[in-house]
Every structure is written in C-alpha cells, then in structure tokens.
Design a protein that fits this description.
Helices cover about 10% and strands about 35% of the residues. The chain has a five-stranded mixed beta sheet. It has a four-stranded antiparallel beta sheet with strand order 2-1-20-19. The two termini are about 25 Å apart.
Length: about 400
C-alpha cells in the first residue's frame, strides 16, 4: 500500500527533470490500442466511480498472477506479475521491460506484499503454513524476519491497520478477522466480524486517512468500508467482470487506493483440446504427487471453479488430503489439456488414480468425475462423493482461499 509523503520544491524540480519524457506518449498509445479492442491484461481506475478504466495495458502473460505495490518509494503503486517463484515488477503502469526481476521462495509458496520496515517501499514475504518469511528488499536470498501467526488454515491479509507506516498481518477464520499491529506472533490486537466466510477481500486506504481497511468483492460489486468494523458497506460500486482477478493500488499517487483488475483468463490456443481435467491438490505443479501427471499433458492453465469449495483432511503421507466439495467459495487448480491422441488413455489413468469407476456406485468410491464451469470453460473435476462429503464436513477443514498451494 502506498503511503502519503511530502516533497520540498527542490525535490519536485528534481523529480520533474528526471522524468523520461519519451515514455508518456508510448504508454498512452498502448493503452488506447488495447482498451479499444478489450485486449489488455491490466485495467486500472483512479476513482471509485466505476465505469471504464483510466489505464489499460499489457504486461506479462495471461496465466501469471498479478501483484501491485510501491516498489521504488515514489508514492505511486505499480504492477508486477508472479510466475512460479519468479517476480517481474514494473515501476510504471504500462507495458515494457520489468524494472525488477528476481526469484524468492519456493514455487509452492503463497506470496504477500507490504512495507514491513516502514521505509515507504513494498517488498515480499512468503507464507508456509502459519510461518511468514519477510524480505525487506526486492531480491532473493534469506528472509530478513521470520514469524508465526495464526493457524495453517487461516486466510491472510496485509495492511497498515494503525496508520504507523508499517504493514502487518490480519488473518480470517470464517468471517472473523484477527488484526495484528506488529510482525509478531501471539494474540490479535483486534477482532471483528465482516462480510461472509466465502467473500473475496481486498485491502487498501480508500479515504486517504493513512489507515488500511477492507473491501468485500462479490462478483463485480465492491463493498467498501472505511473502518475496521462490521456492519453494512459505506459505498458499493460495480467495476470489471466477475471472473476478473481483482487488485488495488494508489495508481496516481494521490494517497488513496482504487480498484484494478487483471483480465488474464484465456481460451487455450489451437489446437482445440477436448475437455480438460482440473487438478487442485496433490497433483498440482510442485506438490507431492505431481509426478503422476508430469509430462502427460499438452498444455496447462491455472483456473478457478466458482461453484466448488476446497476442504482438506489429515493424511499420514501427504501434508493434507484435498477434497473438492459443493460450495460458493471457489476452487483454484490447474486445467490439464491432453492431446487428442492420448486423451482417453490419460483420463482413464487419472480415473484409476482417483479411484473413480465410470458408471460405478458413488457409495463405493471417494470421488466422482463431474463437469464444472471454470473461468476457462468447462472442466472435469474429481469431487467428493456424498458419503465422503459428510465425513469431510465433520472431520475436515475448509480452505477459505480455495487454493491448496496457499494452505
């Protein structure tokens, strides 16, 4: 999150003289080009009025995960992308060459971004279970600070909750938020309820008072609150599309965070593949059973099924065992596209791995292969059978993010 700051006259003149005058026309031309054809990846807005984006451009790949932060301390948030354990960060909201490229953490780590040391620049941290590894520079190597907070199944958010210039953690369980004002373990400094357990949450300083609060996103409706409290939203706007990847930032450096979206969903390019199979747990890239599918597919795309939840149960050999269950929280996975020549064989092979027998009785199986809509189109998903669903709900844990890699 960007922090407000003041500059003297000399600083302002130096900043203006240092501006690369050739960049502005190029960025503007790129924005007009892709917004007019709805082919941008990033769409950023400088207000909470909804409507069309103020800035649109292409950076990264459609399958990347977007990130945002103030990478150079100039008071303006800019974008970047996360790919595997690599980070490609821009210092301008436009396409072009990354200003920072580096690796940090593992491919299965869940990255979070904030200003951990209060120096007005955002850097990375990675989460493994309930352990957080903080870095105070945009570089790889060892973490500068490591701490534990919350529980492994918590969903984590980052913000400057008390306005002291440093970002810290908040975790969510259900619709309860446990706010911590220091990068340390122990009891929360504040606890409150807001929204519904499956809501998508975004964090920012919406009113420019120096403190971050929450926004709930349901579909393409953003429900904004300017305090850390429950109750109805103080403002509701519509922006983007329901299947966009939402992000927020102070795109124009005016001290307030506003919405943006990353429109990275794509239909797989030719050749046209048959219905993909979504893997969402131990078969995902970097997980313990990935060797089962490694080298078998022709293409792979990160996808999200909106009508399913992710639950996990304990397992003696794996860090947890995943179950896709009916729900509205969303399930993140990878759609595997098999070549037409090997499609039937590979799907049958996956059926055997999951213990699914087409036409068999669900009461004798753990999973059943079902067709579900994802942001990339329909995909087969191995969903827990009804008797397994009952057991999992009684003995398992729902993962709020729906992402096994972030559990």
């Amino acid at each position: 999150m960007t922090k407000r700051r003041e500059y003297g006259l000399i600083g302002i003149l130096a900043f203006l003289l240092a501006l690369p005058l050739t960049l502005a026309p190029a960025a503007a031309h790129a924005a007009v080009s892709c917004t007019s054809t709805d082919s941008c990846l990033f769409y950023l807005n400088n207000s909470w009025q909804g409507g069309k984006a103020d800035i649109g451009f292409v950076f990264g790949r459609p399958t990347d995960t977007p990130v945002s932060g103030d990478w150079n301390g100039d008071g303006t948030d800019t974008i970047g992308v996360h790919r595997s354990n690599m980070y490609y960060l821009r210092e301008a909201n436009s396409g072009g060459t990354p200003a920072h490229t580096f690796a940090y953490g593992r491919t299965t780590d869940a990255p979070i971004i904030g200003d951990w040391d209060g120096n007005n620049t955002d850097t990375l941290a990675v989460r493994r279970g309930n352990i957080y590894h903080f870095k105070n520079s945009l570089a790889g190597g060892q973490a500068d600070h490591v701490t534990a907070y919350g529980k492994t199944g918590d969903e984590v958010f980052v913000g400057d909750w008390d306005g002291n210039g440093k970002d810290t953690l908040t975790v969510r369980r259900g619709n309860l938020f446990y706010v911590k004002n220091s990068l340390a373990g122990g009891q929360a400094d504040r606890v409150f309820a807001y929204g519904k357990p499956g809501d998508e949450i975004l964090v920012g300083d919406w009113d420019g008072n120096g403190k971050d609060t929450l926004t709930v996103r349901r579909g393409n409706a953003w429900h904004i609150r300017n305090d850390l409290a429950g109750g109805p939203a103080q403002q509701v706007i519509v922006y983007g599309r329901a299947k966009d990847h939402a992000l927020v930032g102070d795109w124009d450096g005016n001290g307030t965070d506003t919405p943006g979206v990353f429109r990275g969903y794509v239909t797989p390019a030719a050749p046209a593949y048959r219905t993909p199979v979504m893997v969402y747990g131990t078969l995902r890239t970097g997980e313990q059973a990935y060797y089962i599918v490694s080298g078998t597919y022709a293409a792979k795309r990160t996808a999200r099924a909106l009508d399913l939840d992710l639950w996990v149960t304990k397992h003696p050999f794996y860090r947890a065992w995943p179950w896709a269950m009916p729900g509205k929280g969303g399930l993140t996975g990878e759609n595997l596209y098999f070549s037409n020549a090997t499609y039937n064989y590979q799907v049958s092979r996956m059926d055997r791995w999951e213990g699914y027998v087409p036409g068999g009785k669900p009461s004798s199986m753990n999973y059943i292969r079902e067709l579900h809509p994802t942001n990339l189109g329909n995909a087969y998903v191995y969903v827990a059978t009804p008797w397994r669903q009952a057991q999992v709900r009684q003995n398992g844990t729902r993962v709020p993010s729906g992402d096994f890699a972030r559990y």
